[in-house]
Amino acid sequence: MKVAAIQMQARLAEVDSNLEKAANLMETAFKKGCKIVILPEFFPSAAAFHPRMLRVALPFHGPALALLKDAARRFNGYAGGSFITSRDGHNYNTFVLTFPDGSYATHDKDLPTMWENCYYRGGSDEGILDTPFGPVGALLCWEMTRTQTAKRLRGRVDLLVGGSCWWTLPEGVPLPGGRGARQRNFEIMSELPSLMARLLGVPFIHAAHAGDFVSQTPWVPGVPYKSHYLGETQVVDATGKVLTRLSRDKGDGLAIAEIEPGRVNPTAEIPPGYWIPRFPLLLRAAWSYQNRHGKRFYRQARRSGKLLINRD
Asked: Would residue 310 count as lying in a domain?
């Protein structure tokens, strides 16, 4: 099966232009003969701590779903990606895989990561999508970092699909151990698609964001957060071999490869504990403080009406 993972240089919180770019990249991938095409996490908006992010939530039956469904129908294929959407008075980060007949399957990311907590809350489904070509595991970004993800999917899926919007520590800020933490952060991100494939014994189509951004710094008013997304769009086979990849310096693009959905014996063991990789102390500290900030921010923004909650 010929598949494509899409890498995007999205414009932060500029939904219309990002949807147009996503549509063009998907069309290119399908015209190259791909059967499955996967967009990055938050493909209409990317993600950062910025006032414009308060307004990016879309109704589920809105333009992002329509874009995915239209591509799947026109090209008789499968199109997937995640976006912030609203349901039951809350926002979620929902991955949708659409089918040629107009139907679809969904997965809500289980735990928001750091400042993502400002804009949506976690879901509770298992992330197993029922598709015409077998059960498919959907996972987004830091879901790759937790043992609970591997445990709920192992032995139950034939393919992994999903994406990331993974950023790094702020640039130009003299943080203790910052240089080493930035390097380790990149190594973790770039290695995880292959590691997840080996933990589960299935291929993985992983789409990602690239490009620079400037946002605000949580709980530090007036201090800009200048950073970039890490890229590393990859298609990996069931043994963990990276068949194709795009580094972040490649910008917008397609990672296309041939895969065979199905399980082989996993070649890596799920480690004990909560995390799959070992994170540097600085990253764990950022994760902890930004999670606390984000959950409080979400409650206050939702209560005040500043956070857009769309209704179909």
From this structure: no
- List all residues 6 or more positions away from 283 whose beta carbon is below 8 Å from its beta carbon: 169, 181, 184, 185
Distance, in Å, from the CA atom of 295 to the CA atom of 290, rounded to the nearest integer, reads: 9
Q: How high does pLDDT run on average in the chain?
A: 97
Q: Domain limits at 29?
A: 2-304
Radius of gyration of the CA atoms of the chain, in A: 18
pTM over 0.90: yes
> How are beta strands 204-217 and 220-236 bridged, if at all?
antiparallel
Contact 160, 196 (CB under 8 A): yes
> Looking up tokens 């003969």, which residue turns up?
33
CATH of the domain at 109: 3.60.110.10
DSSP notation for 174-212: --TTHHHHHHHHHHHHHHHHHHHHHHHTS-EEEEEEEEE
pLDDT score of 276 more than 90: yes
